[in-house]
């Protein structure tokens, strides 16, 4: 084997290596982009060798707070920080997101808007989310049954993802609970940019006996998909907050949406029987 | 709806033991523990004794093989009067026949008779395992286990048996019962043996102790027997001697291996005798005509020899009756579905249907799983198909309404197919989904079958459940009778 041969072989090997390495890295990037998920397997951490493992488990079981996650020096682990940032990002997304039309179509909900204009105004001016636009009033008057026994309203509120995540479970459960409790509903619809007290304006327009509003809650670091069900007997202009009954924290890790839906019918039945809601209602 | 006295229900406990019968009345106070913004959730927040009967010698008929119901019922009636309670006001509680009395000819019929007559929702309880459990809850061992790190054992020693229950962090690990009791050997103050229980004979034989009725026995000799008895029990409890079902000292056990014990409480009649001085002569020993006082002090010595920590029980001779009266009742979740006219409903055996989230999500195997459970049940309860039972659905942690609807549909159609003559369908869920499942079943059944669907109750295959009338229109009291770890 002469010098040139060796040179050739080395060059060949080097080239081969280079292509392999570049292929590998391409493969890697490709794979990561397609399948990057930060899941419980990645972020779950534990205190190594705790003195009282059962005690830590018991405490962790009763709270969603980030306790017993261990530390590095005096600071949290990178995994914990990443999870916190992930949850924060999800919360931000929830506020700025919009409910998909396809979902609303699935439940035959038409859409009306409040005077919120846009998300920025919505966040700065809560009062605007309490009043429907003139157009909305007109649409509702045209399309809805007046003076229904139960009026169902869905609204994105502060979390569009709450509606996306829970409506499919809570809504049919709610309809069934109306049937079991012998209640009838009017024409349900969706309010974009709604605040809780938009119930009062709708109450003025349709004069239902009871109104239930399924609305996205202010997202937090525990869940960005949390929903509330606000209920009120004869909502109207001037309704005070203590006259509303609420079931909050409805999401997969909190109050089970199917059970909440099934329970709403019972609450509405009691409101109609007692002609009251909020603190005056005996549950 | 039950009449609710403020926010509490009246509960009674009746313990018909080998030597004494006890009765207590307690108030179980319940309160909403959920916030205004969540689904309602109630818990029993306080259990208070309002009346304790004196110890009453369990009345037996002449041959000692039958309980004298008439005398017993008369005494109970008197006790209700003294306590100032009407039977109709009693909304919960339990009657238990313990120790050797459970073997009396008419024990079972008496148990059910008294349970029916003692209040609206008083249940009958029997079995060494349940007895051990209730004693451990009544003595304070169960509560203690929630406060400390280790395993707490409660040894309840009565006339005929020693019932041991092990608790750890508020959970029951299991029970074991020994033929160790104060009245297994009876003698007079001259040292003459007057009675030897047949349940201790095999052990005496295995140890070569030749005891005979009407023969005299010396203090050293009886002390040695009792010491040996305690040593054997402790060797078994501390795992130095493996558990064998043919062990003549073991009555029944749920354990194959007993986990390490950290603390011990002693309750029962023997627990109470600990307050008295240790007997030094046969005359002192036989002050009650049995080996009780000697046994009490030898048990303590044996426990100390194993270097186990002894904790004073908060209740001793009344531990079981207090457990029965105060700790047997739990309340269900408050979002449930019940058909009020069907309550109370008693003694339902539990059928367990095991599903998992994956199956429910995909819908695969749900039908097969439920059908198989029902076929097995039918085979097991052949000829008794009219007996109502409760279906416990396990493994649903989170599911969509569509998936739950599918489960309800399958469950109801199979129930109708296999149990067409059962007028009630009782379902018990682990998690808070009973109302949703209940309404789905109601819509499925179209009022052909009454639906009872409750949740947040922990049951196992082999348990029995009693469900009482609704409280506050939202929840039901339940008594779960765990027979799962009975392996006689």
Automatic annotation (TrEMBL), chain A:
The domain of life is: Bacteria
Cofactors demanded by this protein: adenosylcob(III)alamin
Q: Write the Enzyme Commission number(s) for this entry.
A: 4.3.1.7
A Pfam family the protein falls into: EutC
Reaction catalysis annotation: ethanolamine = acetaldehyde + NH4(+)
Q: Quote the pathway field.
A: Amine and polyamine degradation; ethanolamine degradation
Q: Can you say where in the cell this protein is located?
A: Bacterial microcompartment
Work out whether the entry's keyword set contains Lyase. Answer: yes
Example of a GO cellular component annotation carried by this entry: ethanolamine degradation polyhedral organelle
Residues the entry annotates as binding adenosylcob(III)alamin:
196, 217
Biological processes, Gene Ontology terms: amino acid metabolic process; ethanolamine catabolic process
Co-factor binding details: Binds between the large and small subunits.
Keywords attached to this Swiss-Prot or TrEMBL record, sorted alphabetically, are: Bacterial microcompartment, Cobalamin, Cobalt, Lyase
What is the protein's quaternary organization? The basic unit is a heterodimer which dimerizes to form tetramers. The heterotetramers trimerize; 6 large subunits form a core ring with 6 small subunits projecting outwards.
Family according to the record: Belongs to the EutC family.
HAMAP family to which the protein is assigned, alphabetical: EutC (MF_00601)
The role this protein plays is: Catalyzes the deamination of various vicinal amino-alcohols to oxo compounds. Allows this organism to utilize ethanolamine as the sole source of nitrogen and carbon in the presence of external vitamin B12.
Indicate what this protein is called per its UniProt record. Answer: Ethanolamine ammonia-lyase small subunit
- What organism does the UniProt record list as the source? Parageobacillus caldoxylosilyticus NBRC 107762
């Amino acid at each position: 084997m002469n010098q040139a041969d060796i040179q050739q072989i080395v060059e060949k090997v080097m080239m081969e290596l280079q292509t392999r390495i570049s292929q590998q890295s391409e493969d890697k990037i490709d794979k990561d982009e397609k399948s990057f998920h930060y899941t419980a397997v990645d972020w779950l951490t534990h205190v190594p060798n705790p003195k009282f493992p059962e005690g830590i488990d018991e405490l962790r079981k009763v709270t969603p707070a980030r306790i017993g996650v261990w530390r590095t020096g005096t600071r949290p682990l990178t995994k914990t920080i990443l999870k916190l940032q992930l949850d924060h990002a999800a919360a931000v997304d929830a506020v700025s997101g919009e409910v998909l039309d396809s979902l609303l179509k699935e439940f035959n909900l038409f859409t009306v808007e409040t005077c919120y204009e846009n998300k920025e105004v919505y966040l700065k001016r809560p009062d605007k989310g309490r009043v429907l636009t003139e157009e909305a009033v007109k649409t509702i008057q045209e399309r809805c049954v007046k003076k229904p026994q139960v009026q169902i309203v869905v609204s994105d509120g502060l979390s569009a993802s709450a509606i996306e995540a829970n409506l499919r479970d809570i809504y049919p459960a709610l309809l069934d609970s109306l049937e079991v409790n012998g209640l009838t509903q009017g024409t349900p619809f969706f309010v974009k940019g709604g605040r809780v007290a938009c119930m009062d304006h709708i109450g003025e327009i349709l004069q239902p006996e009871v109104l239930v509003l399924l609305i996205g809650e202010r997202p937090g670091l525990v869940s960005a998909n949390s929903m509330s069900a606000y209920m009120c007997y004869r909502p109207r202009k001037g309704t005070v907050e203590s006259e509303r009954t609420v079931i909050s924290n409805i999401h997969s890790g909190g109050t089970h949406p199917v059970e909440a839906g099934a329970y709403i019918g019972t609450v509405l039945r009691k409101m109609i029987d007692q002609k009251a809601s909020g603190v005056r209602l005996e549950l | 709806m039950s009449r609710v006295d403020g926010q509490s229900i009246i509960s009674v406990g009746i313990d018909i033991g080998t030597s004494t019968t006890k009765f207590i009345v307690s108030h179980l106070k319940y309160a909403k523990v959920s916030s205004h913004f969540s689904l309602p959730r109630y818990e029993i927040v306080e259990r208070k004794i309002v009346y304790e009967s004196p110890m009453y010698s369990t009345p037996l008929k002449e041959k000692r093989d039958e309980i004298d119901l008439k005398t017993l019922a008369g005494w109970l009636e008197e006790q209700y009067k003294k306590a100032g309670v009407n039977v109709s006001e009693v909304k919960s509680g339990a009657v238990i026949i313990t120790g050797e009395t459970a073997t009396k000819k008419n024990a079972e019929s008496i148990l059910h008779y008294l349970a029916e007559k003692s209040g609206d929702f008083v249940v009958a309880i029997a079995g060494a395992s349940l007895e051990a459990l209730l004693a451990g809850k009544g003595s304070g061992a169960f509560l203690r286990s929630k406060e400390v790190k280790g395993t707490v054992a409660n040894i309840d020693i009565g006339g005929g048996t020693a019932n041991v229950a092990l608790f750890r962090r508020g959970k029951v690990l299991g029970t074991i019962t020994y033929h160790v009791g104060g009245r297994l050997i009876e003698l007079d103050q001259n040292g003459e043996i007057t009675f030897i229980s047949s349940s201790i004979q095999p052990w005496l034989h295995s140890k070569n102790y030749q005891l005979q009725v009407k023969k005299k026995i010396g203090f050293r000799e009886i002390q040695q027997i009792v010491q040996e008895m305690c040593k054997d029990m402790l060797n078994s409890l501390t795992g130095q001697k493996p558990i064998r079902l043919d062990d003549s000292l073991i009555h029944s056990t749920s354990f194959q291996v007993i986990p390490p014990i950290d603390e011990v409480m002693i309750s029962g009649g023997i627990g109470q005798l600990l307050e008295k001085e240790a007997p030094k002569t046969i005359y002192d020993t036989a002050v009650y005509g049995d080996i009780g006082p000697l046994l009490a002090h030898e048990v303590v010595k044996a426990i100390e020899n194993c270097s186990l920590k002894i904790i004073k029980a908060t209740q001793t001779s009344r531990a079981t009756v207090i457990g029965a009266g105060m700790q047997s009742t739990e309340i269900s979740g408050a979002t449930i579905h019940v058909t009020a006219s069907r309550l109370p409903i008693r003694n339902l055996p539990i059928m367990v249907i095991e599903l998992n989230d994956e199956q429910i999500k995909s819908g695969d195997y749900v039908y097969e799983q439920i059908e198989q459970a029902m076929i097995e049940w039918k085979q097991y309860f052949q000829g008794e198909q009219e007996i109502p039972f409760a279906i416990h659905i396990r493994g649903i942690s989170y599911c969509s309404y569509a998936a739950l609807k599918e489960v309800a549909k399958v469950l109801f159609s199979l129930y109708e197919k296999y149990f067409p003559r059962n007028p009630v369908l009782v379902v018990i869920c682990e998690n808070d989904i009973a109302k949703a499942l209940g309404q789905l079943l109601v819509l499925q059944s179209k009022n052909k079958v009454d639906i009872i669907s409750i949740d947040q109750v922990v049951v196992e295959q082999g348990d029995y459940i009693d469900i009482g009338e609704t409280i506050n229109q939202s929840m039901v009291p339940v008594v779960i009778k765990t027979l799962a770890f009975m392996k006689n």
